[in-house]
């Protein structure tokens, strides 16, 4: 850094501020420093910096981003904000297994990550959360509410799911089925609660036979929808509780020769990237994934920086995307 400072004609402090984005520097000084860096081939020594500052500039991210398509864009949003603030992500997939998750977080803590963003694998995540508490590691829980000791960034699930059911009952459906997520997740419980509230608002009884678990995965959701359609009094409309299961639901209906929406209406919690390209296009609740990831990263970085206020619990509002799979006219559509 001293060589870079001498070449650029600035102080070592100015070089540090440019490289670490710790204080505003004029465009001219920044240009000179970066030119000197390029000319000298200077690179920062992450180990030395960690020893000197006690910060590794690493953020651990633990969630099932390989097996659950919802988490991939969430990780992307987290990474974008983290990188903009000088942090690098250390990623691991918990495979929705609480024991594996605790082991993985322990390894990350041994690598001295500055903080952790976690989508807990189970509703009862006490082992991993107690570990993070004991180590005093700044932590943000994302997507799933699990423990109010920590900052949490999630999406509203109950009212959004009730809205999907209300939409279906409002166009005449009285047999509304639900393909629910994996047991033990807060999102699964909240969306089931929303489903029941939607039925109650329509004056319809809750029928356990109309709820089947798709375990938050494609193949189990395929079998779940087949079981629903094979019942003596099958549903005329189906709510799928996440995007992976929506793929399974649509696959199962196609294998049965059931037409959407002519034979059965389908709506989804989670908007799929190609939802508007389907025929019919998919009516869904879209989660603000980019906003969730950005907010989770910003919240964690604030904690790493020393913020000691009470835990923040942020619930973001999803958006209803009205398309054609529900079987009713879409406002503004000419078809």
From TrEMBL:
It comes from the Bacteria. Keywords: DNA-binding, Repressor, Transcription, Transcription regulation. SUPFAM superfamilies: lambda repressor-like DNA-binding domains, Periplasmic binding protein-like I. GO terms for molecular function: DNA binding. PROSITE patterns: HTH_LACI_1, HTH_LACI_2. Residues 1-53 form the HTH lacI-type domain. This is LacI family DNA-binding transcriptional regulator. It comes from Streptantibioticus silvisoli.
